[in-house]
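Fold it.
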Amino acid sequence: MFIVDRSAALIRPKQAFLDWLNALPGNDIELSLDDIRSDCTVILVPEASEPEDGISYIDDVAEKLFEMELASWVEDEALWPKKRNLKLFWEWFDVEIHLGVMDSVSEDIHNTPSDRGYH
């Protein structure tokens, strides 16, 4: 096992996100909160000594995270909420900060930029 000099944040959609998703035009599959919270985004964040440090970092990158989450469900940006801000991010997502991250794989991690350019 290897100690990683990062913490982790788990981003989970809330009911407000689900309501938006289910109301999209042409959506013929009714999703549940369990459906959209079962396999969520996990991001590495700078190593934090307190959960509040991780939350502060999430505040700083919330706009990019919001766009990344929206894009993972809906490619057409015209369907995204027009007024995306920090308040709406926290209304639509729960964030769990996990301070300790361990790597159980001895091979190097290879970073590949996402196709939407978020890093």
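The chain is about 35% helix and 20% strand.
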